[in-house]
């Protein structure tokens, strides 16, 4: 028997589900919301609500292309809380990584 303890399950994260969804949309503008839900660990319905809220806030826009949506992130928008309001969405995205396939 091993004396190694299993890591405790993650009970909280530094970023919110809104930021996780935003990161997923930024990394893959053609991603399906079903796939975002799986990556973030929430329901597809919760992702749909978050996408709607991000769109209403002007953080993202979506365009219908055939049967799929394409998402565009407004990197110039400022973050919403007073503590980080001096930072833009683009600043957040730079901090957590670039879109898949982008040169680093």
Describe it:
This protein is of the alpha+beta class. It has one domain (17-96): Orthogonal Bundle (Arc Repressor Mutant, subunit A), CATH 1.10.10. The protein has four helices and two strands. It has a two-stranded antiparallel ribbon with strand order 1-2. Strand 1 (60-65) and strand 2 (68-73) form a beta hairpin. The radius of gyration is 16 Å and the shape is globular. It starts with 16 loop residues before the first helix and ends in an 8-residue tail after the last helix.
Named CATH architecture:
Orthogonal Bundle
Rg, nearest Å: 16 Å
Q: Whole-number average pLDDT?
A: 91
Low-confidence stretches: none
**Strands, count:** 2
Question: Whole-Å distance between the termini?
Answer: 43 Å
Strand order of the largest sheet: 1-2
> Shape, please?
globular
């Amino acid at each position: 028997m091993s004396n190694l303890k299993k890591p405790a399950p993650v009970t909280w994260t530094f970023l919110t589900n809104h930021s996780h969804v935003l990161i997923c949309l930024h990394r893959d503008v053609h991603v399906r919301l079903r796939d975002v839900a799986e990556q973030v660990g929430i329901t597809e319905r919760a992702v749909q609500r978050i996408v709607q809220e991000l769109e209403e806030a002007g953080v993202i826009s979506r365009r219908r292309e055939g049967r799929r949506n394409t998402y565009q992130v407004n990197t110039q928008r400022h973050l919403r809380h007073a503590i980080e309001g001096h930072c833009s969405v683009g600043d957040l995205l730079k901090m957590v990584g670039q879109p898949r396939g982008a040169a680093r």
